[in-house]
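Hi,

I'm pasting everything inline rather than attaching a file, because the server keeps stripping attachments. The sequence lines come first, and each chain or strand is labelled.
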Amino acid sequence: MRPLLLLTVANIKSFTRDRAALFWTLAFPLIFVVLFGSIFSGGTNERSIGYADLDATPASAQLKTAFGSVTGVKLVDGSEDDLLARMRKGEVSAVIVVPKGFGDTVAAKASPADVTVYTDPSQSQADAATRQLVGFVLSAANQAATGQPPAVVPSFQPIQTNDLTFISYLVPSILGMSLMQLGIFSSIPLVADREKLILKRLHATPLRRWQLVGSNILMRLLIAVFQTAIIVSVGSAAYHVQIAGSWLLIGALVLLGSLAFIALGYVIASFAKSEESANGMTSVVQFPLMFLSGTFFPIDAMPDALKTVARALPLTYLGDGLRQVMVDGTPFAPLWVCFAFLAVWLVVCFAIAARYFRWQ
Amino acid sequence: MTSLTTAGADPVIRVSGLQKWYGETRAVDGVSFEVPAGTVFGLLGPNGAGKTTTVEVLEGLRTPDAGDVRILGLDAVGEADALKARIGVSLQTAALYPKLTVVEVLDLFRSFYGRGRATDELVGLMDLGEKRTTRTANLSGGQRQRLSVALALVNDPELVFLDEPTTGMDPAARRALWDIILALKAEGRTVLLTTHYLEEAEVLCDRVAIMDHGKILEEGTVEDLVGRHFQERAVRFDAVDGLADERLGAMAGVSSVKREDGEVIVYTRDVAATIGAVLEACEALGSEPKNLAVRRATLEDVFLDLTGRALRD
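And the predicted assembly:
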């Protein structure tokens, strides 16, 4: 075990002293998260709703408190015209107007009190969420006003990730992408070590090849855990991305995904003759995976021909699986298919590398 | 340690009929030799002679196409794993992790073995103290070579393979390494080295084998080889225009004449008569032999005789 551990430590040192490796595996994905996070930070889970209280009675104030107490809703005060103008600019996603006389109407219990809600049906998710929210608050208000126990109590199970904003789509996608890079970039130091005769020199010691390969994999898996922690922390701390699913499933996907791409890295190392050609082959593999696997936009939005390509790419399934388990994303493929595809990919790549990899 | 000093009966290295082909090329073509325990054995030859391939088969790095190789009583092919724990290896090109420091590389390699020497001791032995925390990528050629030799000693091996260990070293470092190799021998260890430097072989090696085109041309002690080829002394001088080999060969006591890089070497049993005849002949041509010198025949002469080429740095 000691050689395995020391070799892993040596690999980690070599990795952290390599600026290019650090950039591509740690800084590059974070730049994406921060860049897109800043552009789309309006799309966080917190929703701003304009609230124009034209009545200003205790009853209307009570209603305002009820709306304000809903988590994830921020009320913005203002006049009706002002708020509607702000809604057109996209600063608030809906406007609730409580008309003058609302308090009297509620007190009289003669006719139902009127509340006007402006929504934008073209923003279907926001629209539905607002309707749901208003319905929920008003039914509670009705119950309080009439003193009648409600015949039916709606049970709300708010699933925050139903409101999958772009940034929460992006965080698991970027995680998948960075695991892909971490994996396929394993080819470069491997080929470099072979070129520099380090693999040959190691072969002249009692170190076993499984220890050599094991330490390379172990090092990459440790970095994968580190990467996951950083990307998830930045996503949730800076952009309020809620991680919904089980950590066990997330861990299993991170592990399987990393292994599948490390195996792909070994396949590249099997056919690359020099460090330079390993660099080239890695780029050739990296970019289509990055852009055709639904990392930056959903696969459903792709033309059919590209969809077919996406279906054959392993990052499609890693990204899709991560979105499903982390932010309850809409599945492109069932979760078990994601796992199965990655597992098959791992086995096939491993077999190819075992057949064609040359130590010297 | 007792096993090191008492293992005199069986040779540490026994190679017979070794062959290694690369496609149609016979890199090693039927090589046989033995190396007794506690001796230094030199494998000499020009580039492409098959030295490195031979050594790499012995180190368990390559599988031979034919022949039997027993090292420390073990089969170098079938028992390579057990063998690797007991030998030390320095490859022709120092293979070092570029981003690790001298101490980190030594500690790493030390961890591969069950026994070994302390890193500090090896750093001191190889005079790398000032470079302890330097990354290997920033070492000079000679320092890399020294670190490579230090790595070969990390497991306190019974048998050390050094493939051109002094290449790239300055003369001081080269002599320092000679002392280390002689110290290894004094401790009862066996050393197999390949080298370009015949002087190095003369100083260090108990026995040498001269290899060319995959075959061993001659093998024995340095005195054996020189004595076998030359009872003569060598008289050398810069080539003189108009003084042909035939003329020189006909002089008294001269047995052969060689030319190499503008110098003439005349092997003779009668130094005084030969020098007299050369001076006379030159005078007749209105010239004189520049840089005239007399010396005993060396391994260099043997090598020139065997391969028709000089082996120089």
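The longest helix of chain A spans residues 209-239.

If the labels don't parse on your end, tell me and I'll reformat.
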